[in-house]
Amino acid sequence: MIKGLKICGISDPKTLNYILNHPYPPKFIGFITNYKKSKRFVEFKKLKDLIMVDKKQSNFVSVLVNPTDEILEKIKDLNFDYYQLYDVDPNRTKVIKNKYKIKIISALTVSNKEDVNKYKSYSEISDIILFDSKGYHKSESFDHDLLDWVPNTLNKMIAGNIQIDDIPNFKNKDFHIDLSGSVENNEGNKDLNKIDKLLNLVAKT
Asked: Which of 71, 149, 172, 194 allows an S-S link to 183, with CB 3.0 to 4.6 Å?
């Protein structure tokens, strides 16, 4: 059974409002906070206004790539439940978690078994381990079979170019599922019809 769904890369109020008020809202909603190379990046002032809403049943996730102390201080009072950290070693992850009293999703980018094995260094620190592709914002894939040996006891999330029609394949897996590009149109904007299809499909899976 799918543990939960994350829709990532939300950057406008219309889409956010639609998701929050959907009959089957996702467990997590992600916002690109400091990675300016991503087309889904949200500037601080816009981000602050965007997430100043009633989250209802969803958790807000700040997606951060190797964040500086400056950006962490800047966002510390924003309406986030989790920090999703890329390129942050276990020691710094622990410091961030303890200092800001925030739940942590540690993102590991995967291309081989050795990359997967890095979860062991984070399992006692992080609340969720995210296994993603090396592409970051590019919605690239990786071989999900590499995760077959990861213990079921680990609270894990999976990303990497997962398509809406792939969802039924995860019904017997104990993953949180993270999607972004697959719910966008050809212009790279979030597509409400695709989001609706995804949320309804997950609810029935």
From this structure: 194
